[in-house]
Write a structure and sequence with these properties.
Strand 10 and strand 11 form a beta hairpin. Strands 7, 8, 9, 10, 11 and 12 form a six-stranded antiparallel beta sheet that branches. A four-stranded antiparallel beta sheet has the order 1-6-2-3. It has 387 residues and is an alpha+beta fold. The two termini are 37 Å apart. The radius of gyration is 26 Å and the shape is elongated. It folds into three domains: 155 residues, 2-Layer Sandwich (D-amino Acid Aminotransferase, Chain A, domain 1); 80 residues, ATP-grasp fold, A domain (Dna Ligase, domain 1), CATH 3.30.1490.20; 149 residues, 3-Layer(aba) Sandwich (Rossmann fold), CATH 3.40.50.261. 40% of the residues are buried. The longest helix has 20 residues. It contains 14 helices and 18 strands. The structure holds guanosine-5'-diphosphate (GDP) and manganese (II) ion.
């Protein structure tokens, strides 16, 4: 789960990691008030779950109250398009108003999990700022990395090695070492999968400070992270995915035209592979689960159909715990409540599959049966093309 920059900075503050003074504003009035409290130039920062805001115009400096008013009005409600949001962009509902600082140096720090080595990796670079992606692509040697055994934790020598690779002087090292150790502890404490500080700045007054923070927490750990859970912002999530979660369906929206409804994550992955092999693109991943009820199938169907890009649907069920007749009843019910204007190809095997096929056959609705999985993928790809 992603959280906003202002929320990440709250966590950093709790761990005594220096961040600029600032507060969140939901309206222009709140922004003006927040800036007045800071007294001096401020930076207004769009709070959306995407990076690259600086490049998209989502980070603006304001030197006076009038400028704050003008820029806050421009930012709030704007559709921010950055290299990370895709062409659709993200609507800005919140801005962070922060004291503007004099920056002497912009550094990069990233902490993440390396699944291949089962270690925590810390990356650091003097090429911090808005072009770190280009640095990683063209001059990766400018990024130093250390691997940390999670059972041993971060040690003094780790911090020293990165401090030297960043070319920090003695005074700066004194600030950097506890700061990095605190970031590492925060990473572990909140079950993060990513903590990126870009930039970590050295101010003109020689003070190290976190200017931007991107934090992601492992979804599987959310059950033990109540504070992080309270940071969830549904406005930043795909509405169809939020709805699916309410029905306990694993649904992930994708960009293709073939909707698919499958039981079991493995089978759903295999189904998407076959759709691609047949020359089409899946519109979603949807695992209704092994113990799905007719109602869950109906909801799954409705969610798939709410995506206007869907041109055909492939239902691929291998009945185990989920019986074929229950599935069929769910589909028929869904077809009655929401008008299905696209072809539906059904591949049904396993427990009570014959009973399920009979229900579909006698429903008076137009379902296309498939002989096997490959045949189903071929048919659905063809059907979508003809639409
Ligand atoms: P991102 O583009 O989404 O990563 O947003 P950042 O928070 O990293 O801001 C982008 C850039 O804006 C930073 O790299 C800085 O150069 C600049 N910036 C942000 N805050 C300040 C500030 O307080 N003072 C100055 N001078 N520049 C800032
Ligand atoms: Mn940044």
């Amino acid at each position: 789960m992603k959280i906003h920059e202002y929320q990440a900075k709250q966590l950093l503050s709790r761990h005594d990691i220096p961040v600029p003074r600032g507060s969140l504003a939901l309206t222009v009035e709140e922004a003006v008030k927040a800036a007045a409290e800071i007294a001096g130039p401020v930076v207004l920062k769009a709070q959306v779950h995407a990076g690259g805001r600086g490049k998209g115009g989502g980070v603006q400096r304001a030197n006076s109250g009038e400028e704050v008013e003008l820029l806050a009005a421009k930012l709030l409600g704007m559709k921010l398009i950055t290299p990370q949001t895709g062409p659709k962009g993200k609507v800005v509902n919140k801005i962070l108003v922060e004291e503007a600082l004099d920056i002497a140096k912009e550094l990069y720090l990233g902490i993440l999990i390396d699944r291949a080595t089962a270690k925590i990796v810390v990356m650091a670079s003097t090429a911090g700022g808005m072009d770190i992606e280009a640095t990683a692509a063209t001059t990766p040697e400018k990024i130093a990395r250390i691997s940390i055994d999670p059972l041993l934790g971060i040690q003094g020598y780790h911090c020293r090695r990165l401090a030297f690779s960043l070319g920090l002087g003695a005074e700066e090292r004194q600030q950097f070492m506890p700061l990095l150790a605190a970031l590492y502890r925060l990473f572990v404490e909140y079950d993060c999968s990513l903590l990126e500080i870009n930039p970590l700045i050295l101010t003109a007054a020689q003070k190290l400070m976190v200017l931007d923070a991107k934090l992601e927490v492992d979804n599987n750990a959310l059950f033990r992270q109540p504070l992080v859970r309270s940071f969830r912002d549904l406005a930043e999530e795909e509405p169809l995915e939020v709805e699916a979660q309410a029905y306990h369906l694993s649904y992930i929206k994708l960009d293709g035209t073939i909707g698919n409804l499958v039981n079991g994550a493995g089978l759903a992955m295999a189904t998407m592979d076959l759709i691609k092999k047949a020359g089409a693109e899946p519109a979603n991943f949807l695992d209704v689960g092994g113990g799905a009820t007719a109602e869950m199938v109906e909801n799954g169907f409705r969610i798939i159909l709410s995506d206007p890009k869907v041109k055909a649907i492939l239902v691929n069920i291998f009945g185990g715990i989920l019986r074929g007749d229950i599935l069929a009843r769910g589909i028929v019910e869904a077809a009655r409540t929401c008008r299905i204007g696209v072809p539906v190809i059904v591949r049904l095997e396993g427990t009570n599959s014959e009973a399920g096929r009979q229900i579909l056959l006698h429903s008076g609705l137009n379902f296309i049966p498939a002989a096997d999985l490959q045949d189903a993928a071929r048919q659905v790809a063809m059907a979508a093309q003809e639409k």
